[in-house]
């Protein structure tokens, strides 16, 4: 988060925060982020967040299958053809190895994509807007931009409170 | 989409979100390690040390230190390998099948089951390694450019499929397990007061913050990784079964083997989960999380699987008779049902197919002691199943002059006990240092499935 200050609405119930997001969106207030101790499916649907990880996973799986088949074909047909038990060099049983390696490459690269997109790495230092969001609190973060005057800040404040926030505070980071 | 009322209350005792964080993190945030933990760890370490001696003896003096002979070329090593792999199916079967099926009751058990998977598969992997004899040439099993041609592995061989399937299974299960723990590490990071623990868990948590986009990506990646790993449960043990079924040994050369092995693996895995969870819920007082309803659900699955096992055993015997092959007839009717190995065969049938039928009675299902004993018996039975399959078929081969009874030696027993010690030590370390229940997932199901009065009151307000 940059130097702008933020308005934090703290909630203690997943359903309240979900309706609060509705309320804010209705009033054309931009919800910057929502922090929660567990996934809130309704919230990301309301914020219209999308992810392309499934497409990436499919590509990784396809890449894994294709490259392992290329290797098997090259090693068993081109490089050193050797007949085992009368089976053809380009054998149907390659399917099993291709299947397993498709899964392996899908799993590993999906995880890596997730970590890279989320910018997560071991030992990354983070400051949470409110550390209680890993425990039992749910926080809506609204950016307080330069254009906002006192009135609109107050309006956001009231809106958060009326939709069930147990606490509203301004954070400067 | 799903009516959760079917399973009733999954988290008892009016827990709030905060209570869940406290309950799960307390055992690993306390500075005082309980005394029973030290005793159990000492015991497990002693077993492990004995196993290390067994390893040393095998490597220094060769496979001759085992009881293998001309006809029984696969002994305890393969029996224990298959047994451990079977137990290693629990975590993935549990957490991933139930995840894909949206079964909410998995949440309090999946983490421990996944930890079991990791340690059991590692224990299993030791057996093929040590069975190679020249363990320092172990890298021969991987296809790498070499100066012998290059001569590649036989990609048509189930033994090679095993290498790929098991290493993939271990990698995928580990990554899935670790990824599941990342949000919980963040919870611990914010809760702990000790600077060392804060440092360690913040490294482990990868800087997880739990914002909306993060959770969306996390959930998507988790379900994808889970969905990808789920078929591995089927493929790994099918391939292990193919190690046997692709051979022409009587008693092995049977088309029923892959499904039979997969079902057996899930059977032994689930009962190992049951054994451990019964101990854990008792020791850590987690009766509110691992409720009787959870145990009931697992025992129902076990009853069903046990029936499948029974049908598989009967089918094998029937096919031996129906095929009219004298060798098959001999193996089943002279060497399994009766004869030298009849005890092992009947131990297998009674532990796997008969005794679990007691779970038809609600009284038995709700008696934790009975459930505990049966869960152990199932794993004993599954061990005897592998013994029956491996040893009865091998000990009486085509030439009666080579017939030989197989007994394990002290070294083989040491290696097996060593892997048990490794497994238990791993589980104990897991219980001490890692969140043993998925905190974020428990919180996710709390509201829909608990009888929490506080939450219901909030609802009314």
Name the features.
A: 173 residues; 48% helix; B: globular; disordered N terminus
Kindly describe this structure.
The complex is a heterodimer of chains A (173) and B (461). By secondary structure, chain A is an alpha+beta fold. In chain A, 48% of the residues lie in helices and 13% in strands. A four-stranded antiparallel sheet of chain A has the order 2-3-1-4. In chain A, helix 3 packs antiparallel against helix 4 (94-117). The termini of chain A are close together. Chains A and B meet through helix 1, strand 2, helix 2, helix 3 and helix 4 of A and helix 1, helix 6, helix 7, helix 8 and helix 16 of B.
Radius of gyration of chain B from CA coordinates: 23 Å
Residues in helices of chain A, as a percent range: 40-55%
Termini separation of chain A comes to 6 Å
Helical amount of chain B: 55-70%
Low-confidence stretches of chain B: 1-6, 452-461
Main β sheet profile of chain A: 4 strands, antiparallel
Order of helices and strands of chain A: EHEHHHEHE
Main sheet properties of chain B: none
The structural class of chain A is: alpha+beta
Compute the average pLDDT of chain B.
Answer: 86
**Beta-strand percent range of chain B:** under 5%
Chain pair sharing the greatest interface? A-B, 68 and 66 residues
Structure, briefly:
The complex is a heterodimer of chains A (173) and B (461). Chain A has helices at residues 14-26, 41-46, 53-79, 94-117, 150-162, and strands spanning 5-11, 33-35, 138-144, 167-171.
Topology, element by element:
The complex is a heterodimer of chains A (173) and B (461).
Chain A: E1 5-11, H1 14-26, E2 33-35, H2 41-46, H3 53-79, H4 94-117, E3 138-144, H5 150-162, E4 167-171
Antiparallel strand pairs in A: 1-3, 1-4, 2-3
Helix pairs in contact in A: 3-4
Chain B: H1 17-29, H2 35-61, H3 76-87, H4 89-100, H5 110-131, H6 158-191, H7 195-204, H8 212-245, H9 257-283, H10 292-323, H11 326-335, H12 342-354, H13 362-365, H14 368-395, H15 410-433, H16 439-449, H17 453-460
Helix pairs in contact in B: 1-16, 2-15, 3-5, 3-9, 3-14, 4-5, 4-8, 4-9, 5-6, 5-15, 6-7, 6-8, 8-9, 9-10, 9-14, 10-11, 10-12, 12-14
């Amino acid at each position: 988060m940059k130097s702008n200050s933020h308005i934090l609405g703290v909630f203690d119930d997943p359903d309240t925060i979900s309706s609060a997001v509705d309320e804010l969106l209705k009033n054309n207030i931009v919800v910057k982020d929502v922090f929660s101790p567990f996934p809130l499916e309704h919230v990301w649907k309301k914020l219209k967040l999308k992810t392309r990880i499934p497409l990436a996973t499919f590509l990784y799986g396809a890449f894994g299958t294709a490259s392992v088949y290329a290797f098997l074909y090259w090693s068993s047909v081109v490089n050193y053809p050797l007949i085992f038990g009368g089976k053809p060099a380009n054998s149907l049983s390659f399917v099993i190895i291709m299947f397993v390696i498709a899964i392996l490459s899908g799993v590993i690269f999906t995880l890596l994509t997730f970590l890279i997109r989320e910018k997560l790495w071991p030992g990354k230092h983070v400051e949470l807007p409110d550390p209680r969001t890993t425990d039992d609190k749910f926080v809506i973060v609204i950016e307080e931009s330069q254009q906002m005057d006192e009135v609109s800040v107050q309006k956001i404040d009231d809106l958060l409170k009326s939709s069930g926030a147990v606490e509203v505070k301004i954070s400067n980071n | 989409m799903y009516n959760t009322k079917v399973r009733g209350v999954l988290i008892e005792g009016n827990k709030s979100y905060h209570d869940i964080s406290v309950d799960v993190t307390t055992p690993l945030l306390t500075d005082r390690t309980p005394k029973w933990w030290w005793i159990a760890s000492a015991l497990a370490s002693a077993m492990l040390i004995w196993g290390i001696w067994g390893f040393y003896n095998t490597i220094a003096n060769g496979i001759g230190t085992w009881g293998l002979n001309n006809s029984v070329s696969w002994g305890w090593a393969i029996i224990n390998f298959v047994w451990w792999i079977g137990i290693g199916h629990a975590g993935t079967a549990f957490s991933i099948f139930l995840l894909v099926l949206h079964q909410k009751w998995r949440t309090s058990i999946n983490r421990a089951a996944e930890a079991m998977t990791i340690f059991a598969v590692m224990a299993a992997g030791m057996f093929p390694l040590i069975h190679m004899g020249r363990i320092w040439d172990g890298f021969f099993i991987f296809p790498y450019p070499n100066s012998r041609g290059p001569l590649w592995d036989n990609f048509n061989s189930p033994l090679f499929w095993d290498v790929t399937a098991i290493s993939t299974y271990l990698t995928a299960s580990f990554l899935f397990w670790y990824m599941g723990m990342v949000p919980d590490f963040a919870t611990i990071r914010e809760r702990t007061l000790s600077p060392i623990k804060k440092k360690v868990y913040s490294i482990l948590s990868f800087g997880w913050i739990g914002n909306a986009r993060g959770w969306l990506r996390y959930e998507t990646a988790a379900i994808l990784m889970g969905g990808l790993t789920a078929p591995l449960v089927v493929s790994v043990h099918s391939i292990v079964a193919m190690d046997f079924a692709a051979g022409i040994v009587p008693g092995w050369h049977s088309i029923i083997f892959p499904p039979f092995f997969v079902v057996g693996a899930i059977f032994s895995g689930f009962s190992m989960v049951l054994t451990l969870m019964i101990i854990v819920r008792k020791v850590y007082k987690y009766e509110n999380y691992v409720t009787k309803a959870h145990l009931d659900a697992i025992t129902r699955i076990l009853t069903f699987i046990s029936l499948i096992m029974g049908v598989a055993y009967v089918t094998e015997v029937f096919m031996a008779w129906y095929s009219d092959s004298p060798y098959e007839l001999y193996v089943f009717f002279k060497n399994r049902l009766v004869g030298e190995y009849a005890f092992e065969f009947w131990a297998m049938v009674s532990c796997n197919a008969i005794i679990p039928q007691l779970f038809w009675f609600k009284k038995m299902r709700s008696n934790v002691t009975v459930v505990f004993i049966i869960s152990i018996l199932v794993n004993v039975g599954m061990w005897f199943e592998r013994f029956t399959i491996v040893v009865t078929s091998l000990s009486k081969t085509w030439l009666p002059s080579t017939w030989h009874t197989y007994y394990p030696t002290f070294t083989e027993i040491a290696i097996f006990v060593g892997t048990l010690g490794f497994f238990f030590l791993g589980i104990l370390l897991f219980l001490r240092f890692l969140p043993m229940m998925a905190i974020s997932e428990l919180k996710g199901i709390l509201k829909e499935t608990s009888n929490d009065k506080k939450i219901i009151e909030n609802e009314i307000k």
